[in-house]
Amino acid sequence: MLELALEVGQTAKPEAVMFWILGPLAVVAALGMLLVKKAVHSAILMAFVMIVLAIFYIAQDAAFLGIVQIVVYTGAVMMLFLFILMLVGVDSSDSLTETIRGLRPIAITAAVGFGGLMISLLGHATLGRGAVGLAQANAEGNVEGLAQLLFSTYVWPFEVVSSLLITAALGAMVLAHRRRTSTRPTQRQLSINRFRGDSLGTAAGLPGPGVYARHNAVDVPALLPDGTPAAESVNATLSARGDMLDYKKFDLSEVNTKVEEEK
Amino acid sequence: MDASNYLYISALLFTIGAVGVVVRRNAIVVFMCIELMLNAANLSFVTFSRINGDLDGQVMAFFTMVVAACEVVVGLAIIVTIYRSRRSASVDDASLLKR
């Protein structure tokens, strides 16, 4: 512990300072990812962990990977996650309640076992030498070195990976494509439906929402001449979600119309 | 600084990600935990590249990133498709194959 403090205290080792500040922060953020309730918060903590990892890469002479990490992960992948979160929305699966009994203690026990095993293995493993460092390999520049490897030794995997990318893009398009199960009604068909339907009540179009002169938001039903609310004036999605407001709040008889005397 | 410190933090992040995959129910959070595990493995690759003094580890991490990007694209498309038909992103609800 004292050695650690000494190591951190030396300004000659900025990497150690960086590591002992950012490392614990990354672990705390990763733990927070498991513990926060909302998926959006998880995504933001995840983005933080990825930025910290990018800094670690750059600190370890992997400048290209560090930049790619920021561009690809915090830029593209996390944005994709946030888009999907926006599409899917919040539902009951965000809750942290345990659905399979005893799952959590088993998972934590297994994790402690696995993590302890990994860390103790790493602690016992020795190479018999220190880290070589990348000064020689990066002599011509990190990007140049990587390119030389990618287009000589790893050219075949590189090509295979490119075909994988194309397949993934195609797969996503096929999965996201939705075929219409019914034909789209034409203007003529809509018109016929309106006038040859059960009643002519909506022939002139549906009433617009809002109690006139008191409230004109889309989530308040309009009032018919006899004072009853017109349910069809509010979008079906809003009423299905239960977001329709009660029109009574805006009823004139409920509103205080007494004029206060001026002093 | 000893480079193996990075390996310890990589093991910790991998373990946290694994717990998240098992414990969380929201498919998107599960997916993010998988990403965390892949990233932890990448950190190991980069660290070993530094320890060994050659760039092969960094090339491996590069390939991992590409594969992870493919996996995210297809996985999120699957999640959206399941959500569309079942109105839920919970991994517990998608047990259609069981019956």
Question: How would you characterize this protein structure?
Answer:
The complex is a heterodimer of chains A (263) and B (99). The model of chain A has no long low-confidence stretch (mean pLDDT 82). Chain A has helices at residues 2-9, 14-35, 39-59, 63-88, 103-124, 142-150, 155-176, 187-195, 236-241, and strands spanning 222-223, 229-230. Helix content of chain A is 55%, strand content 2%. Chain A has a two-stranded antiparallel ribbon with strand order 1-2. Chain B has helices at residues 4-23, 27-52, 56-86. The longest helix of chain B has 31 residues, at 56-86. Chain B is elongated. Chain B starts with a helix and ends in a 13-residue tail after the last helix. Chains A and B meet through helix 2, helix 3, helix 4, helix 5 and helix 6 of A and helix 1, helix 2 and helix 3 of B.
The tally of strands of chain B reads 0
Structural class of chain B comes to mainly alpha
Broad structural category of chain A:
mainly alpha
Tell me the radius of gyration of chain B.
Answer: 17 Å
Fraction of residues in helix of chain B: over 70%
N→C terminal distance of chain A: 76 Å
Give the topology string of chain B: H per helix, E per strand.
HHH
Low-pLDDT stretches of chain B = none
Most strands sheet of chain A: 2 strands, antiparallel
Quote the average pLDDT of chain A: 82
Q: Give the ordered list of helices and strands of chain A.
A: HHHHHHHHEEH
- The rounded distance between the terminal residues' Cα atoms of chain B is 55 Å
What proportion of the residues of chain B form beta strands (DSSP E)?
A: under 5%
Beta fraction of chain A: under 5%
Please report the number of helical segments of chain A: 9
By oligomeric state, this entry counts as heterodimer
Structure summary:
By secondary structure, chain A is mainly alpha-helical. Chain A has helices spanning 2-9, 14-35, 39-59, 63-88, 103-124, 142-150, 155-176, 187-195, 236-241; strands at residues 222-223, 229-230.
